[in-house]
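Input set for joint prediction.
Command: fold jointly, output tokens.
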Amino acid sequence: MTQLEAAKKGLVTDEMKIVATDEHLPVDQVREAVASGRAVIPCNRAHRAIHPVGVGRIFSTKINANLGRSTTTSGKGDELFKLDVALRAGADFVMDLSVGEDLRSIRQGMLDASPAPLGTVPVYETISRLKGDIPEMNPDLLLDVIREQAEQGVDFMTLHAGLLLRDIPKAMSRVMGIVSRGGAIMTEWMQKNHTENPLYANWDRVMDILAEHDVTVSLGDGLRSGCLADASDAAQFAELDVLGELVRRCRERGVQVMVEGPGHIPFNQIQMNMEREQEICEGAPFYVLGPVVTDIAPGYDHITSAIGATAAATYGASLLCYVTPAEHLGLPDADEVHRGVIAYKIAAHAGDVARGLPGARERDDKMAQARAAFDWKAQFEVSLDPECARKRWQKTRVCTGAEDDDHCSMCGKEFCAVRTSKRIREQTGSNAH
Amino acid sequence: MTQLEAAKKGLVTDEMKIVATDEHLPVDQVREAVASGRAVIPCNRAHRAIHPVGVGRIFSTKINANLGRSTTTSGKGDELFKLDVALRAGADFVMDLSVGEDLRSIRQGMLDASPAPLGTVPVYETISRLKGDIPEMNPDLLLDVIREQAEQGVDFMTLHAGLLLRDIPKAMSRVMGIVSRGGAIMTEWMQKNHTENPLYANWDRVMDILAEHDVTVSLGDGLRSGCLADASDAAQFAELDVLGELVRRCRERGVQVMVEGPGHIPFNQIQMNMEREQEICEGAPFYVLGPVVTDIAPGYDHITSAIGATAAATYGASLLCYVTPAEHLGLPDADEVHRGVIAYKIAAHAGDVARGLPGARERDDKMAQARAAFDWKAQFEVSLDPECARKRWQKTRVCTGAEDDDHCSMCGKEFCAVRTSKRIREQTGSNAH
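tokens >
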């Protein structure tokens, strides 16, 4: 039985209990959200190391770190190291997007090492087995790969099932065309074989496999915009309508489902995009990549996209897929993975504060109190990246004293406003809240 | 005659012409915006190296880089080097916030080297002359410093004139109290001397000096919030009301004026803050610091604040004061200055795109076209930080070929979506826009 099937029958699973505890919510509220499809708990029982995590608007916003080798760079050891870096930095979900050789072994290594739910894009392995020969893909091979990965323990899978033959011309007239790896693969296959999307055409068979292993579908956005000029266009929204249809079919079949979203989107269009997805997909958790709010900053796309991700988390997203500083330039290394995760922890948390999620601001308030008290140790402890903060502070520390120095090198002792403010309070007998 | 006085009389100055050319606007529109106070052109004739820059919603959003030594760290050479770094990275404005010794010389060095308008906070020099003894400050000394700096060529000055005696208790009951250096100085002085804010009390005298040299006032927000818990509170808005009054007095006197704003603000309160300032200060250009949207990420406050700054630029700010990764931890070094400027160039540009500023998206579109064509050279040229982008791309380049490689190490050749998309287009005879 899937989490969705259990929830519909009124059953509370162990996974729901864990999520309820972690989120400080009554378990019935978790069960109801899962039953309605507004929340998912991607959790494959074959993934032994897993600690279940909930995705949905009633929970805190989660972040995903994409990992995985490319055909030209990196290998199993590198990717397992990056996995460790991502988890330590706070990634809630990870995806193994490896292509090329050695895929089953890399995936198994990640499943063994990751308490975070693990996702994949099965068409990558399918095409890897064909050495990149996309037109040669047999739909049965694709389904075999999905089954094998489900049996192996993958918790959620990105399936580009909503990109239909009829919508390809809409994408081809864009500036950037198709920028989704999976979307481009499906498109070339359909085009060469003059045949409908094999996932869409075989959706009942796909759902049977997923239901058996309780693999959560992440409906891929093969037609997400790859630049601001292509944002919120006919291609993107044509696919979204199909995703809405597939959400309904998944829910009827008892398969947990979330929906992936854009992409490159101007800041002012993000709220509209979030609301449109929520409406068309009837509240299915929205899993967004970025969005990137300007195209002109390669090397800094963790920032361009953390800006968009904060707006996305505020207005409707439940899971944020990180973008690293290497985006548009190369495969991220471990340091870039770290920086991507931290940027997204910021976005997720800022979004939670902005949407008024109960308890979200507590950590900020602890930091404020620690700052007012010059308690540097407490400041570092409550920091998203304690090591980074501590190192930077120590770099220009002037006094050799303990960690209760009452200023930093920015203003120095005489010009520290917090220090002056504290003195005024002491003089006037005012007390902080 | 100040730019404002000239504009009111219907006169077009050379500075207005330069701004009109740079902003691709008719000069009459620039003159009208200056006349109404909705735009300012900070430009002191004694600043020989200046290239005039306009601030206001009809122009592109500008960014400011804070520079200057603290009492414990850095010196003239360091700060001149940072100035060069900031200007090269694209800073439109710079402020010299130096405290301690050697202030006149540091400032002169910056004025000589900077085509960007230069701002200061005169109370810093005043208190530096008193070796940090705040209660000893004589209002006449503060006015003398303002006059000397105006004569020297400072283009705009932050004056914390809106923080009144009656509003101090509101600030003292906060979690973080006062976090503005200038605000804390004014407050301690008022408190110890039981006397009203010396800038407010002598505002006519202050304006006489500023008008003579056409120094633009930047009305300081001494009561800006220093943490989310203190955001948008009674103290902050009490000061804003006084700033509104001072804006009107400046405009009547012919003194150009902009208004500084918060601070630490949750993402969902930024739009309200921008709109409230615009209303109360009757469209005076809003110069915002960040805002920082979460308190928990020391070491990454260029990101926490670039998120807020993008929203600020979208909803009403005209000038964004950068925040560097060193914020809350120490005085920024040259690399941190660079990173702060780039983060803010992103925020300013993303905001301009979001608010539909004519022409803003052209650069993004050029990038999209270069990406679709695998024209790496063009991609780097249109990048905000070409050197960073090029270096990262070269790091994992697989082919030894020229700069027309049709993929990067992220996906490799077989899995590059843009490459696949290009192939599909060639097969189907589709053309990009």
